[in-house]
Amino acid sequence: MEKTLTITNNKIEFLHFLKKMFPLFHLSNLFFRDVHYGIIDFLEFKKIKTNYGEAEKIAIEVVKFYEKLNILKKISNNTWVLNYSEFVQPKKAN
Question: Per-residue pLDDT tens for 11-55?
């Protein structure tokens, strides 16, 4: 629970952390394993030890948290659409 709170209490920081790891934009797909491995790396960055199985359980809780905030919209069992307008891709000039 404490490790899950480390993510949820830093929800924006975690999203920016994921964006550094993966191509993450407003309305882009986000996959469960991206969140899972992002949690492992984020907790390591915060000097918190975890393992694969524990991080997977945390990822389940974190995804539910982001769904409640409407930041993630589920489209399948392991895929979500990111609804975070701060990550809108800038339009290219012609």
Answer: 999 999 999 998 899 999 999 999 999 999 999 999 999 999 999
Strand ranges (DSSP E) for 1-94? 29-31, 72-76, 79-82
| Distance, CA of 26 to CA of 82 (rounded, Å) | 6
Residue 88, domain member (yes or no)? no
Residue 36 lies in a domain: yes
Nearest Cα to 1, choosing from 45, 54, 71, 49?
54
- Domain hosting residue 68, numbered range: 2-83
Closest among 9, 20, 8 to 60, alpha carbons compared: 8
Q: Which residues are bridge partners to 72 per DSSP? A: 82
- Domain total in the chain: 1
What pTM, to 2 d.p., does this model score?
A: 0.88
Does 23 map to a domain? yes
Is residue 63 assigned to a domain?
yes
